[in-house]
Each structure stands twice: as C-alpha cells, then as structure tokens.
Amino acid sequence: MASGTSYRTIDARPNGESLIKPGELVDLVEVTPLTLTDRRIYNQLLENAWDAIDKPVTHVISKSSLRGSHNSNDRVGESVERLMTAIVRVAVNWDGEAAVERVQLLGGNIESLRNDGLFEYEIPPRLRKIIRNSTVFARLQREVMFALSSKYALTLYEMVQKRGNLKYRSSEKFTLDALRGVLGVPKGKLTSWSNLNLRAVQPAVKEVNALSGFMVELSPIKTGRRVTHVELRWWRKDGDGVGKVERELSYSKVGRKVRMEEGSGDTATPMQVSTSAPRPAWLDAKGDALRTETYETARMRHPGYDIYFVEGEWRGWAAGREAPTDPDRAFLAFFRKFAEANPL
Prior knowledge:
The protein folds into 3 domains: about 1-140, Arc Repressor Mutant, subunit A, CATH 1.10.10; about 150-270, Orthogonal Bundle (Arc Repressor Mutant, subunit A); about 280-340, no CATH class. The chain is about 45% helix and about 20% strand. The protein has helices spanning about 35-50, 65, 75-85, 125-135, 140-145, 150-165, 175-185, 195-210, 240-250, 255-260, 270-275, 290-300, 305-320, 325-340, and strands spanning about 20, 30, 60, 85-95, 95-105, 110, 120, 135-140, 170-175, 215-225, 225-235. A hairpin with a 6-residue loop joins strand 6 and strand 7. Helix 1 (about 35-50) packs across helix 3. It starts with 17 loop residues before the first strand and ends with a helix.
C-alpha cells in the first residue's frame, strides 16, 4: 500500500506474485452486486491494463487467462456483462470536499468466439481519471486471491491489504450500512448484524486469518441496544504465522475448512489483540516492555493507533536522553503529544 501525494498508485508495479488495485476500487460500494468470479476477473483486467490504464486505449487479454481452470467461456462472458452493467459509488475528493462519484467498472469490449480467442476491452473515462489521481492502493497476492472461496473474504482481504501498512492506524470504524455496501451484500439480504456476522463476516475473517499475512477482527459496536457500527482491526503476523500461511497455500484446498477450524486457536484471537497484543520482537532491542496496564491505557485513550509503533517512536526520541524515573508515565505523556501531532 502507498499513500500521500508524493507517490501515485499508477507508479506502483505489479510483479509475478502480486497485482495492484487502487484504493478507490477497494472501498467502493456495489450498486449492482458482483460475484467472487466477477471480482477476480476484474482484478485480472486491471492488472493486464496497468501499463496504460490511465490512457484512452483498448486492452487485450486471452480468454484462457480469465477462464482459469474452467473449460467453458460462459462464465467469462457472464462476468463481463455484469461488470459492464455494474454501477459503483466511489468516495472521491471534489474541489477539496468529500464527494461520491458513480462510475461503471468496464467499458465497451469485443470477445472472440474462439475458445482460445482474445478479449478486447476499455476502461471508462471517469474511472481512468479516478485511477490517475489515486494515491492509495492494495497490493494483492495472486495466490491468496485465487485461494479465497467467497467474495466477502476477497473483499475483506483487499480492505486489509489497503490499510496494512498505515503507520499510525490499526483499526477503522464503519457504519453497519457502509460495511454491508463495501462487502457487496445484495439489497435486502443479511439485514441484521447477527445474520451478516454469521453468513458473511465470520467466514470471511476465518479465511483471511488463515490465508493472508494479517490477522483481522470485525467487532460490533452498539448504540443503545442495536448494533450500528463495526470496528475493523488488523495486525501483521509474525514469522511463524507467515510460515503457516505459506504452508497452507501449498496444500490442496481439500480439507482447508477443517484445518482453518482446527488452527483457529494457534494465533492470538482478534479480541486478545485489543487487550494483550503480543509485543513485536524488534522492540525488545530498544528496551524492556512497559506494564500491561500501560499498554491497555494507551489503547483506551488513543483507539486506532498502533501502540507498538508509537512506543518505537518514543524510544527513538528518548535515546540519549536521561532515563525517566517513571517510564510508563513518560510513554503515556509522549503518546498524548504524538496523537495531537498525528491525528487519525
């Protein structure tokens, strides 16, 4: 992921293992819900067009690349037609103010009728402009994208990949309606939090936790007696966790669901990270850990910040200075000034 005005999304380069997706196309709201196959194919179309994605040109890709392991081209054609008719709402900045832009995902195209033929397509002009101005993106691992088994899991994975490298943030809140829109839940479906959580959220969380480089949690927030918001939290896995992901991706998909259930206790649960997250090993070289209650106080006072990143900043600032008589109190004082200088 990249952010800031000094680096544009179109300057990021895909490689053999990963592709680039503009952040605006990660957190979009699907007015016309798409399927898992639609989203995979669209990511492949973006990748194929990447070198000239902001230019008014046509792009060509083989149908076999989009078809994957399926022998029939019918699925490709159906996805293309859904992508052509799909209207999405994208959050943009218009003359310095927040705005909503409605765009189509895919422009005109032509498909060879040959089974091994080509597919030629266009990126719509307004979408090209959004991509050209984008400064935030998600880097998606191709192997993970094809391993995830639901569109909700793929969407959640993209959301975390977009946010995972943010320096100061490790959480974000969404209204329930906003989360449902980003996940692409069809209108009138999964209207209650209990159904949304059971059918979409928890299965997606399990898959992302098992197959990506991050652990993630989605926690309900109530207003009165109703769930009105959801907080997304994420944290990067350590070396052992990444090793488990690599091994799982090398296994057959057969039995994966059972393995995910059996391995769900191997890593700190999402709720544990909000109360007693493991302190990264790189901080050990900078000084002894603070009291557990100090970290919890920091989380309560400054929700959304990565407390261990801030601790690293504090220890770097304090290096060479006289050691404080009360390190815990000194850290909390530093954290307050840091949060004021670096608002989320």
